[in-house]
């Protein structure tokens, strides 16, 4: 039943999203959109080396997209690029391949596990993870450019 995916903790997370808004000095901005449901997440990311130092987001999504964005915003600062790429892959596997949810600081993602049974909800649940990995890629690409080519 749909009641399984919209459990009490998902509703709490969706109703209390930290770090809403935009960063004026972001190193990268990325948007992820679900064509199926119309949900959109736009994120701003700031990094120092391989580590996230600041994050903000504009979340126009269903409760599942809001909940996953809430979890991301609660734990992203201090996370590394490789950790966040691995997280996105872990969540994707959790939803699409019956994988286990992440552990440690990301363990609240376990509340999204019932979404696995509803393929139409996978895209909105993954939006924030996809946008963050996109932004990390942008930042890394800029860092690889010769100094004169940036800007």
Features:
single chain, Sufe protein. Chain: A, alpha+beta, globular, 5 helices, 151 residues
Description:
There is one protein chain. This protein has a single domain, classed as Alpha-Beta Complex (Sufe protein. Chain: A). Helix content is 42%, strand content 17%. A 3-stranded antiparallel beta sheet has the order 1-2-3. α3 packs across α5. It contains 5 helices and 3 strands. It is an alpha+beta fold. β1 and β2 form a beta hairpin. GO terms for molecular function: iron ion binding; iron-sulfur cluster binding. InterPro entries: NIF_FeS_clus_asmbl_NifU_N (IPR002871). This is Iron-sulfur cluster assembly scaffold protein. Pfam families: NifU_N (PF01592).
Task: Write a concise synopsis of the structure shown.
With 151 residues, the chain is of the alpha+beta class. The protein contains five helices and three strands, in the order ααβββααα.
């Amino acid at each position: 039943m749909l009641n399984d995916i919209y459990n009490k903790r998902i509703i709490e997370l969706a109703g209390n999203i930290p770090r809403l808004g935009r960063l004026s000095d972001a190193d990268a901005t990325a948007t992820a959109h679900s064509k199926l449901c119309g949900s959109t997440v736009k994120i701003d990311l700031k990094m120092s080396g391989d580590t996230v130092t600041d994050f903000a987001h504009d979340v126009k999504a269903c409760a599942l997209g809001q909940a996953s964005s809430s979890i991301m915003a609660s734990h992203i600062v201090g996370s590394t690029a490789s950790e966040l790429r691995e997280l996105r892959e872990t969540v994707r596997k959790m939803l699409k391949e019956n994988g286990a949810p992440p552990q440690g600081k990301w363990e609240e993602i376990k509340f999204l596990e019932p979404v696995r049974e509803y393929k139409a909800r996978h895209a909105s649940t993954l939006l924030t993870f996809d946008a963050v990995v996109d932004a990390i890629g942008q930042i890394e690409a800029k860092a690889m450019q010769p100094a004169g080519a940036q800007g």
